[in-house]
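User: quick one, fold this
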Amino acid sequence: MKELKYDAMIAIHGYDPEGMDGGRGPEEVWRDRLSEGQESAQMLEEFGADVVFAISGGGDYGGKTEAEVIEEYASREFPGIVENYDIILEDDSEDTRGNIEQLQD
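Assistant:
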């Protein structure tokens, strides 16, 4: 695997409506996470950091992984993220623990 070098990673994980934020729709949660991530990335850049976004989530959502679905949402709703930052898709994990472990690798 190619080694990537960045100063900071903004991790956007998938969402289970039955989980901690239960009752909220996935797009509402993604919007919050992407908005906060974008603000954090901009702040880090002010300090000279090279930032990468990592979108994490496996599973099968109509033939796509959760990471791919979130990336498509980001492309529509947060084009500045997709246009201005490198994006790593981690699409093997099935839960929060897996999100973190896979991104760490």
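User: anything notable?
Assistant: Residues 34 and 78 are 7 Å apart (CA to CA).
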